[in-house]
Amino acid sequence: MRIRVALADVIAEGELFEDRARITARALWERLPIRDRTIQARWSGDAWRIEGNYELLDKDAPVENPAGRLSAGDIIYYPGYKSGLLKVAIAYGQSQWLAPFLEPLPVTYLGKLDTNVDAFVERCQRIIFEGPLDVQITRAGAAVDDSSA
């Protein structure tokens, strides 16, 4: 399953891990397209999350393929039912999904961007200074919607 992430004027594509995060990857695939905004991850380093909440799994579902340290292009899902945060997030550099006081949080490592990653990283590095960007996450090969997210 290949996805496309359109962020401002940059488009990157990547693979969802059907073999390592089968249930979560399938749930995201079925939920696509997502049209939202990026929010810089406050505690987690070089990563952003989508603004809206997206419940992909039942609250009792286990975290598949748990992620530790992340690098540019890594895609995760945070099922934070206790905090009310159900987020898809993408790292654009060194990152780890953390709560306040730097406590690691359980997240599913569900995919990796593998095309146009350098341009994607370069654009993402400005989010912290310039603010949120519109983002579309779609199935690769699907038309990108030019209207507002």
Throw out a few tags for this protein.
Cyclophilin; two-stranded antiparallel sheet; mainly beta; 11 strands; eight-stranded antiparallel β-barrel; about 150 residues; about 15% helix; 3 helices
Short note summarizing the structure:
Helices cover 15% and strands 44% of the residues. It is mainly beta and 149 residues long.
User: How would you spell out the order of helices and strands?
Assistant: EEHEEEEEEEEHHE
Number of helices: 3
The shape is globular
At the third CATH level, what is the topology name?
A: Cyclophilin
Structural class by SSE content: mainly beta
- Poorly predicted tracts of residues: none
Number of strands: 11
- Give the spatial strand order of the biggest sheet: 1-2-10-6-7-4-3-11
Label the CATH architecture: Beta Barrel
What is the number of domains?
1
- The chain-level mean pLDDT equals 92
Distance between the termini: 23 Å
CATH class category label:
Mainly Beta
Q: Report on the biggest sheet.
A: 8 strands, antiparallel, barrel
